Amino acid sequence: MAIEAVLFDFSGTLFRLEADESWYADLTRPDGRAFDVDQKAEIMRRMTAPVDHVTDFDDATQYAWDHRDLEPALHRKVMMHVLRESGVPTDEDAERLYARLLDPLEWTPYPDSEAVLDRLAAQGIPVAVVSNIPFDTRPSFAARGWDRLIGTFTLSFEVGAMKPDPEIFHSALGDLGVPAEAVLMIGDSAEADGGAEALGSRFALVEALPTAERPDALLAALRRHGLME
Questions:
Q1: Number of CB atoms found within 10 A of residue 190's CB
Q2: What is the pLDDT of residue 87?
């Protein structure tokens, strides 16, 4: 069956959270030393990990982790714990970093995100953003005029289901009006995004690399599935 619609993950697929030095201004480790490059990268990885357990949890925090993208309050609870366990010295510092995570305008698009959205629109192929996330990603697209290229936003905290739960995919498919067998899902997590395969959809995996290191993975995914004119 020909592909009639494409579903995209948000974090690590169309956009990536990338910090500049202002994120760590006046932030020092408890021993008084500054965070080095690897430590900063690890903090960012833990803030955006799609499925991996990133630190030790007690039962209550484990529950918050497992349900973090369904309830914003649970997301905040567990991420504050993760940041403090990652060496962020104070609650104030953790709150400041967490606020930037929740700001959709802090997220950086991959170099080919606009091109893939434009090319799919030109072919009349509708697009959905299907994301496990506790905040509204629409402003990330609207700020660049890309919201007109998205048929529907299917966000876990709004629909009450997280990938790989089939319900979140069914919600997107219902909005687009296409059968699962005619859909390509593109994302950076084989476990979460790859759940679309259980419905009969096709799946393309991309790596959540820094944006400067991944110039055309989305275009390549479309090309592999015959969606490049």
A1: 14
A2: 76
